[in-house]
């Protein structure tokens, strides 16, 4: 990591996928792909000899992801409108399935994982990355603007989401019949010299923030938010933890040991 650069969620996701065993030549399913952030990362990891099938139930965001992949030259990635709870029958025998921030929105996460695992070959990987909101934000110093921005950016997690899904990963994957191999948690830490693009997140979801009544556009003043966040962090000389990210990977049991029901 370069000095002065904040460890990003992409960094955490890439390390999780690589450590889990995602690599060249693999055929991987990306569930709930949204704008295609993870899809593009997977496309790079599996290379030209591999393939990525990304699904999302929102046709608009799937279109955005498809266009981003076209611009990036990710010819090994394809995009299909589908829900993870009702996968197309032709999706089977894949080497791995991956999801980021999707289980927290599932009414039946165990059933969802069981369905996703059915598209993976015996012995194949299932990898999920989820967040937990019980330990953040955290700082020894008082950082009111950062706390306010964190509450605003939390609007991306709609009502009804399980904000403790990270803590539930081991139990959910195991209950789905998978052999859990590792669960980890990593914090995204900010210092005056290494900051997170919080203002960019707030800008992207501004309609959700104002719609939820968290704050008005005038109160947020998104055009100056980044400068004010930087000034607060530099003025305090503090370290700030704004995100706690859990990752886990498991394998579908081989034919000899049984498969998820």
Question: Which features would summarize this protein structure in a list?
Answer:
Rossmann fold; 7-stranded mixed beta sheet; alpha/beta; globular; 261 residues; 10 helices
What is this structure's SSE topology?
Elements: H1 9-20, E1 27-31, H2 37-46, E2 51-56, H3 59-72, E3 77-81, E4 94-100, H4 109-117, E5 120-132, H5 144-153, H6 165-175, E6 179-190, H7 198-204, H8 206-211, H9 217-220, H10 222-236, E7 240-251
Parallel strand pairs: 1-2, 1-4, 2-3, 4-5
Antiparallel strand pairs: 5-7, 6-7
Helix pairs in contact: 1-2, 5-7, 7-10
Low-confidence stretches: 1-6
Helical amount among residues, as a percent range? Answer: 25-40%
Give the distance, in angstroms, between the N- and C-terminal Cα atoms. 42 Å
* Number of domain units: 1
Secondary-structure element order, as H and E? Answer: HEHEHEEHEHHEHHHHE
Number of E strands: 7
- Arithmetic mean of pLDDT: 88
CA gyration radius, whole angstroms: 19 Å
- Class in CATH? Alpha Beta
Sheet of most strands:
7 strands, mixed
Anisotropy-based shape: globular
**Multimeric state:** single chain
Q: Enumerate how many helices there are, as a single number.
A: 10
Residue share in β-strands: 15-25%
Question: Within the CATH hierarchy, at the fold level, what is the topology?
Answer: Rossmann fold
Helix and strand composition category: alpha/beta
Can you say what the CATH homologous superfamily is? Vaccinia Virus protein VP39
At CATH level 2, the architecture is 3-Layer(aba) Sandwich
Q: How do the strands line up in the largest sheet?
A: 3-2-1-4-5-7-6
